[in-house]
Amino acid sequence: MGVKDCYAAIPRQWKFPKVIIYLFGIELLIEIAALALYGIAQPDLYRTRLWQEGSDHGWNSNPNSIIYDYANYRPVHTPLPWSQFVTNFNVVISVLALFILLCKGIMYICHVFYPIFSTFIHSALIALYAVSIHAQAASDMSDPDHPQPGAPWYITKSCGAPVKPSLQGYCKQAKGSFAVTIMLCALFVIYLMLSIWSLLAPMTRSAIRNRKLSTSSEDAEAQSQRPWEMVQVQPPPTPGTTGGLKSPMTPRTTAFNTLSGKMGGGKEKKSRMGKGKGKEVVRGPDGKVPLRHHISMGDQVYEGPSGQAS
């Protein structure tokens, strides 16, 4: 099988084309919200403030630990959920996902957005957003006195009291960013499932069709290999018999049969005259045949003046 055959064997039709269009619309709305939330948080609008708020309540480490590390010439270790990497990474993947969405829409309109392409694209997007979810929900164990074994406090706790009123709005934004990330990851999983389904559905139908064809061919082969004595052979019907074919009649054949019948009739009359089967010839007193014998002679045989039957 060559490259062209492999390419031709790849399914190009979606199982549910209208569902893909609806998913495009939903993804566009979520992507715009995610890009807005991630852009607002960059570079450090509320990340350090939330980190400090959690430290004041004893929920996580203290941001000042970085200053102590610099002062004591120790390796600086920033907990992953409070690092600048998470903020920048979220902005990058949101811009990339929005660009890919525009490309997907154009490809779909041009009928070249095949399920096989969607499988690779959304697998990569799922991996990127899974990293973002892991980074946002990572633990903070840098301070043994105030460990944070699970997700940051703005995810696991309420944004109300005892949080400062000035930080409650930022807390909700951070919580919304995490929720949007999960929604996009779930949406890309749905894309991937539909892509795989669209790829496997034609193969399943082809396998069922091939199984039916192989079964029918096996039955035909088994029937052809049966012993001859077990097969009832019906002889062809004999032409001219009851239930058989009728003798072919053409205009030429009809003409010859008619001519043969006239000639045969004349010969039969001559033979009957020659043999003399006792048929009485009625003549008048003058030896001629009456006129009525020309019209209807019944069982009598007409005999002309020359003694020949006419």
Describe the structure concisely.
The protein is mainly α and 310 residues long. The protein contains 10 helices and no strands.
Structural class: mainly alpha
Q: Number of DSSP strands? A: 0
The ordered string of helix (H) and strand (E) elements is: HHHHHHHHHH
- The portion of residues assigned to helices is 55-70%
Radius of gyration: 52 Å
Figure out the total of helices: 10
* Approximate shape: rod-shaped
Q: State the low-pLDDT regions, or none.
A: 273-279
Average residue pLDDT: 77
End-to-end distance: 89 Å
Q: Strand content of the residues, in percent?
A: under 5%
The main pleated sheet reads as: none
3D architecture notes:
With 310 residues, this protein is an all-alpha fold. Residues 273-279 have low confidence and may be disordered. It has helices at residues 3-9, 17-41, 47-56, 65-71, 84-109, 115-136, 153-156, 165-224, 251-275, 291-295. It is rod-shaped, with a radius of gyration of 52 Å. It contains ten helices and no strands. The relative contact order is 0.10. It starts with a helix and ends in a 15-residue tail after the last helix.
